[in-house]
Amino acid sequence: MKKVRWGIIGCAGIAKRAVIPGIQQSETCEVTAIASRRLEKAKKTAEELNIPTAYGSYEELLADPNIDGVYIPLPNHLHKEWTIRAAEAGKHVLCEKPLAIHAKEAQEMVIACEKVGVVFAEAFMYRYHPRYAMIQDFLKSGEIGELRGIHGTFTFNNSNDNGNVRFKQEWGGGSLYDVGVYPISAARMLLGEEPQAATVHAFFSNEHDNVDMMASGILEFNHGVALTFDCGMWAAFRNNLEIVGTEGRIEVPSAFIASQNEQDNFFVITQEGRREVEVPRLNQYSLQADALARSILNGEPLPYPAADAILNMKVVDACLTSARERRRVEIS
Asked: Name one GO molecular function term (predicted).
């Protein structure tokens, strides 16, 4: 069976820890090469992860004719440049979230990929896990009644990690970019619509280049429905989603990090009691890779088109503006 050959642009922790193993475990993909600006680092990572080829520059990787697509886990401010350069080299692109620094950049990236006809996706791996299709089926069934609201959290504490790229404002640092994008994208996905306005309050830390180390917000959707959320990089770990209806609710205890065990299950709570719903034990990074491969090899449409990333970035733009200017921001 023909497989999509991936090159990895950068040796970021998320790439080594999750995405590369996920691609390697997928049915339709393989990792052919990895590049770093330091050849020694690329060689070390290639050896650790059994990757055949290591390059000492991103340009060399893009020039490799044996690579079909690239995964880009670089700092946020480099996403636009290397996505466009990869597209111009004829490579399909999986780009780490958030796709860009703002919606205008995201739009330029999408247009560049469309112009040359390469597949382009934002790396929201959680959306490919079947449990979200199962949750949407519960919502459609009416078991929890009419939807009244969603609450999402994603927080962790790495505040002592001096020099972390997430703490550089000009590089697109901050908790809204890093983890706030998860509950935001989840609400848009589950509701199937775009929010009308955002109001966000944030803690901007002078110790961390004045990026938002914690943010709490509300997104206004139609019919009085809202997403309330909080995200942070200087708070105890949380990773939850709660969907509230008139007759019940759904709890997702590990909403965005699937560990391939019982923690991935979700719970439906109604007047009949609390019911645990078991989900398949699957690697969501492998599922993401296979979805892209089906699009690359067979022309199947992606479940989440690249244009979705532009809409998500518009919401993030509004959230950041609201937090910095301390006001409600309407989203056109």
From this structure: oxidoreductase activity
